[in-house]
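Q: Structure tokens for this one, please.
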Amino acid sequence: MTSDPQLLHKLSHPIAYPVVFTENVFDPANRALVDTLDHLKENRVHRAMVFIDSNVADAQPELIQQIILYFDSHSDDIELAEEPRVIPGGEIIKNDMEVVGPMISAMIDAHLCRHSYAIIVGGGAVLDTVGLAAALMRRGIRVVRIPTTFFAQVNAGLGLEVSVNFDGQKNSVGSFAPPFAVLNDWQFFYSLTDLDWLGGVTEAFRLALLFDGEWFDELYSMLNVLPQRRSEDLAYLQSRTAQLYLNALEKEGDPLEAHSGRALDLGHWSAYKLEAISGFEIPHTEALAMGVLIDACYASRQGWLSGPDFERIYTAFAQLGVPLWFPELEEVSADGNLSLFHGIPDFQEHKGGMLSIPFPTGFGSTRMEYLIDLAVMEDVLEQLKCLAQSSVELQNEPL
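A: Here is the predicted structure, written as tokens:
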């Protein structure tokens, strides 16, 4: 005889971590990092290893000594387990799973316990890769993220995901590992290249398109000054955009991506595939901006998004100077179809369940679609190619 199954106990644990906005995070007079490491009030000296993105270290050669001085200045509260480690920056580090093992070995050699910290200073790829190593170390040591790119400060550094690329697929190996804390310092924006800066700013437009039409209007009015990186704009731009992302995580109620789709996925199905087709040579910010244009153009073709609204989105990206077309979009796979279109089933497998792709229907609204008309999507790519060629011709016309 069998009895009905009974629920003995239901576990529930909230996901909570501070996101701190600060300036000159490694200035000894700034206690934001010290106070963040001690926000649980454990009454002890906190040990940490620091991992630095090589792109950041190259742009700020004084940074390692600043970090050492910072820890020395607060030696009653925090301790460096070893000198900060510089590791390769950019997507290249996510393409080699072999780097994860040595990172774990370094943490073991430094005798980090589960209450020690891995402090990661860098862009999204470095946050992801070191974050994965830290999540695997002793089933998870504490991670403090200090994102250095605009995109990382308003997106990649705020979420729960840690991952690397594997077998030619974007983020195919990873897990969910909430950080202990995130510290956003807008002063890092000054060390970015122009393309990294403006490519990252497209994420502000993407989030505004998804969730806040008034913010899109405000950003649109700032198009001429955004390339200047004026100090009076940066903290506001950073905090308001990051808050949109955090609000979306909370509102959608799916931080662990248990469901098949969410509005935050706008642009991702094609962006992930475009990166993979290029051998991950195309940066994520540029691929995602292209993905937004593809989805917005498709929505316009289907009558869900007005023509003028699509034109505003396209104009914004064009004025920011990000690439508006990539030859990889025309690559044909062995089955005779565009390689890009294999990104649709890939994305479905990545997200799980049925295909669910969001498309914009206006500034601040989206709709979820479960079937893509590939014939229309081919027309979309042709339209975007023609628009990009026209943009180049206009730029090359003599004044």
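A few notes: The first strand starts at residue 19 and ends at 22. The mean pLDDT is 93.
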